[in-house]
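For the sake of transparency, this paper describes our internal protein records without simplification. An entry from our holdings is shown next, in its original layout:
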Amino acid sequence: MPEILPLLYLASPALPIGAFAWSQGLAGAIGQGTIRDADDVGTWLAGSLAHGLGRLDLPLFARCFRAARQGDAKGLAAGNASLLAGRGTAELWEEEIRLGGSLRRLLGGHGLMPDWAGGLPLGHVAAFALAAAILARSGAGEEETLSAAAEAFAWSWLENQVAAAAKALPLGQTEGGRILLTLMPAIRETVALALALPEERIGSSLPGLELASMAHERQYSRLFRS
């Protein structure tokens, strides 16, 4: 089995990279009235997981992870560039850059940033993949470790999104916990599909999320940066 504690560390919402400040369009959808209750939040997140993370973030996470394991700076940079190209609004792009920068600084502060990757301006997904490749080293095979790391990344995303919904709606702890438990099996299924996705099929289409993100840029009252 892969080492679980380093992955729990990376997936924790307490990791000091500032993920709590971003909602990825969720706050915009709440402001527009598209999301009104816990059921709406669950539906929104299920769609984002299946058609966003499962089609773009996680397949490219896998490519970044494999490149990081091999010390392949060019491959890691290519995966990161594809991720940034897939961010459809200024807010989503900025989130990717800022969270990635924070995670890179955290790795550097712990003396864990390898020399070959030190000069790469990695976004969040690529930086998380690099961190997982560095920290989760055990006797497990690479694909088993990759699968666990991808699930940790998806879980981290889901927890932060539910926390954002809890602040913006508001959403009770019991309701938030129900969403997490309901979508837990979907994370494993989505990761399995994402890791097997052919190169030519990588790419997400979430126009509703991107429109909500653009509306959020001009929202009258904002708790989040996206």
